[in-house]
Amino acid sequence: MIILENFKMPNVDLEAVMRYLTETGKRTHQLWMDDETLAFVARGREYRSEFHINASYEIQYSLKGAQDLMYRTPEGEVKVAHMPEGSVFYQPPFLPHSPRFAPDSFQFIIERVRKPGEIDKFHWFCPNCDNFIHEETFYVDDYRKDPVSRAYDNYFNSLEFRTCKKCGTVAPGRD
User: Which keywords appear in this protein's UniProt record, sorted alphabetically (predicted)?
Assistant: First the structure.
């Protein structure tokens, strides 16, 4: 039996959240997080170049605009799952993925809360030869801490991290 005492059912105005993100320039807004589930809205991921790897599934719904979800197969091949506005996508755990969508596009995302010891990884590859060039790791206990931005700050602020050891190409920094 489920006890609903002190339970507050989230009722979210997604249009208002999208306006808030647009007006503030922020990229994510956490809607709720309980012991099992994390939900947030993300705005624009046009700058993403890394592949995120986590132990949780992700359910992504294209609220506004389309998304191209780049992902890597177990063999390392890069593929694209195109998600038009209004579509939903289930992404299995541990799939290296890189969501890419315009600044005026929005995704509603539901994930499983990370268990103690589960570490999110962010992998970058050389834009010239596809050699692995850098990894950032974070324990994602609260999406309001914006781990993606923290990983990117570390990566962009280091010429060493962005330089391919195989071919010498320097991956682009912040524009």
Answer: Dioxygenase, Iron, Metal-binding, Oxidoreductase, Pyridine nucleotide biosynthesis
Q: How far apart are CA 32 and CA 126, in angstroms?
A: 36
Give the global pTM. Answer: 0.85
Q: Looking at residue 103, which CATH number applies to its domain? A: 2.60.120.10
For the chain, helix (H) and strand (E) counts, in that order, are: 2, 11
pLDDT at 67: 94
Domain count, the chain: 1
Domain assignment of residue 9, yes or no? no
Judge whether residue 112 has pLDDT over 80: yes
Looking at the domain assignment, is residue 167 inside a domain?
no
Vertex 154: Cα angle to 158 and 130 (nearest 5): 70
What are the structure tokens assigned to 84, written together? 């038009």
- Is 69 contained in some domain? yes
Q: What's the confidence (pLDDT) of residue 142?
A: 67
